[in-house]
Design a protein that fits this description.
single chain; mainly beta; Jelly Rolls; 8-stranded antiparallel sheet
C-alpha cells in the first residue's frame, strides 16, 4: 500500500485516510526495493493506520520496512498493529516525520534493526509499544543525529515512554550506544522496561500477551486480530489459503566490524604510495600523505604528511584507521618529527555523533608544543624524532581520561596522566586519525604507528 504524495508539509488531498484490518505479507519478494508493507508520504491530518498485521517484507537490497512513514509524513495515528519478519525493521519514521503518534503496536523479528525513529522539531510520540527483537540493533545508528540536534537546541524530544523492550539474546539492550539507565537520563522511556512481554508463542507468531505480561502494567492493550484480513463470501475469504509460503528464517544481520590492530613502519610500502592500512582523504593542491624515504625514525621509510594553504577544509589532508576496539586498555604509539609551521593532531573517536564522540586528542605544533585536549603538556625539540604513546581504557566503566607519554630522541621520558576526554560519549575506538589542521605549507613525518590492546 502506498498512500500520499508530497515531500514537504504542503496541504494535499491524501488526508483522513483510515487503513485498518489489513493482512499484508510476503511483499517485495526480492524483486522490489525501498518500500514497505505500507508506505506513506506527506501531510495527512486525520489519517489512521490501525489493527493491521504486516509481515514478511523482503526487498532485493537493503531497504524494506513494515510501516514506512517516509519523508515528512505527519499527523498519522499508528496503533494496534502487529509487524514482524521484516528485513530493515518494523517502523521507519525518519526523513522529517513529525507529529505522528505511534502507540500500542507490536514490532518483532527484524533482521537488521527494529526502528528508525525521528526526533523532529515538532516531535512524534512513541508510547505503550512492545519491541521484541532477537538479532540486529534496536535503532538504526544514523537516527541518533536528530536526537542529538534536539538535545543541543534544548528542544522537546516528544513523548517516548511506557514501552516494553526485549531481546532474549541480549540482556543489556542498547539504545543506540546508550545503556538503558543512560537512555533514561536523557528523559526518554522513564516508565519503560527491558523485560519479557510474555507472548503466548512468539516463535509461532502468536503475539497474544499472557495475563501476567509486564506490558499490561505499562498500559499496553491486547490487540485483537480476529477481524484482520479478507471478509465477505466464504470462497473469497478462503482464497489466501491456496498460497503456501515457506517458513521464514531471518537472514543474518550485517556482521559487526572486525577489530583491527595496526603495526606499520611503512617499510613494505613503496615510496610515493599511501599507507596500506589507513584511509587517506583530502590530497590535492599540494597536500598529501605518502610514504617517503626522506626521513625515518627506524629503517628507511616513514610517512610524510604535507599540509597546504588554501584548502577548502583546514582539517585536510588527513588519514584514519578503523580499529573497532571496544573494551580493555588500548595503546597508540608512533614516532613523530615536526617541522616549523605544522599543526597536526591525532584523535580517537567513537561512532556517536561529533564532537561528543571524541576521546583522546593530542595536537602537535611546529614550534614544539604538544597539547592534550586543549591543555599544554610539554614542548619538544623541532626537527627531532619524538616518541609518543597514548593509552586509554575503553568501555562504559572507563575513567574518562587518558595518558600521554612523550620521549624525545635522546631525551627523558615525560608522562602525563588523567587528561580528560574532549567528548562526553566516547567509550569505544572506531576511528583513529592523523589530521593536518594548519593553514600554511608545512610538513611532519610519522613512523612506527602501532594501535593495539595494551596487553599485546
Amino acid at each position: 500500500m502506498s498512500i500520499g504524495w508530497n515531500w514537504n508539509d504542503a496541504a494535499n488531498r491524501t488526508h483522513h485516510n483510515v487503513i485498518e484490518y489489513n493482512h499484508v505479507h510476503h511483499v517485495m519478494n526480492g524483486m522490489l526495493n525501498d518500500g514497505g508493507a505500507i508506505y506513506t508520504l506527506g501531510t495527512s491530518p486525520g489519517s489512521v493506520i490501525r489493527n493491521n498485521v504486516f509481515h514478511d517484507v523482503w526487498p532485493y537490497s537493503a531497504i524494506g520496512w513494515g510501516i514506512y512513514l517516509d519523508a515528512t509524513t505527519n499527523q498519522y495515528l499508528v496503533e494496534n498493529n502487529i509487524v514482524y519478519n521484516i528485513l530493515s525493521g518494523g517502523l521507519m519514521d525518519h526523513n522529517g516525520g513529525h507529529e505522528n503518534v505511534i502507540q500500542n503496536n507490536i514490532f518483532a523479528f527484524s533482521a537488521q534493526q527494529m526502528l528508525w525513529p525521528c526526533w523532529a522539531t515538532r516531535p512524534n510520540t512513541f508510547r505503550r509499544n512492545i519491541v521484541y527483537l532477537t538479532q540486529g540493533q534496536l535503532f538504526i545508528p544514523m537516527a541518533e543525529r536528530r536526537l542529538q540536534a534536539r538535545r543541543k537546541a534544548g528542544e522537546s524530544l516528544g513523548e517516548w515512554d511506557f514501552n516494553c523492550y526485549y531481546n532474549p539474546n541480549e540482556p543489556d539492550l542498547r539504545f543506540f550506544r546508550h545503556h538503558f539507565d543512560q537512555w533514561q537520563a536523557l528523559g526518554l522511556d522513564q516508565h519503560s522496561s527491558i523485560v519479557d512481554p510474555q507472548f503466548e508463542n512468539p516463535e509461532g507468531y502468536d503475539f497474544r500477551v499472557k495475563p501476567t505480561s509486564p506490558a499490561l502494567v505499562m498500559g499496553f492493550k491486547p490487540i485483537d486480530t480476529s477481524a484482520v484480513g479478507l471478509y465477505g463470501d466464504d470462497e473469497w475469504v478462503a482464497e489466501p489459503a491456496k498460497f503456501k509460503h515457506p517458513v521464514t528464517k531471518l537472514p543474518p544481520p550485517p556482521a559487526p566490524p572486525r577489530a583491527l590492530s595496526v603495526g606499520d613502519g611503512f617499510e613494505k610500502t613503496p615510496v610515493g604510495a599511501r599507507p596500506e592500512e589507513a584511509t587517506v582523504s583530502g590530497e590535492g593542491q599540494g597536500a598529501s600523505i605518502r610514504v617517503t624515504d626522506e626521513r625515518a625514525a627506524t629503517g628507511e621509510h616513514s610517512l610524510k604528511l604535507t599540509d597546504a594553504p588554501g584548502l577548502e577544509q583546514t582539517w585536510q589532508p588527513h588519514m584514519y584507521y578503523q580499529p573497532h576496539l571496544v573494551s580493555g586498555v588500548v595503546r597508540q604509539s608512533f614516532d613523530i618529527l615536526l617541522e616549523p609551521g605544522v599543526e597536526m593532531f591525532t584523535e580517537w573517536r567513537d561512532s556517536t555523533p561529533y564532537p561528543e564522540c571524541i576521546g583522546p586528542s593530542v595536537t602537535f605544533y611546529g614550534d614544539g608544543r604538544i597539547v592534550g585536549s586543549g591543555k599544554l603538556l610539554t614542548t619538544v625539540p623541532v626537527d627531532r624524532w619524538v616518541r609518543a604513546v597514548i593509552e586509554c581504557a575503553l568501555g562504559r566503566r572507563g575513567p574518562g581520561t587518558y595518558s600521554v607519554e612523550i620521549t624525545p630522541l635522546g631525551g627523558e621520558q615525560q608522562l602525563f596522566d588523567d587528561i580528560p576526554y574532549s567528548g562526553d560519549q566516547f567509550e569505544e575506538l572506531h576511528w583513529l586519525g592523523f589530521v593536518c589542521n594548519g593553514e600554511e605549507a608545512a610538513t611532519c613525518y610519522v613512523d612506527n604507528v602501532r594501535i593495539a590492546p595494551a596487553a599485546d
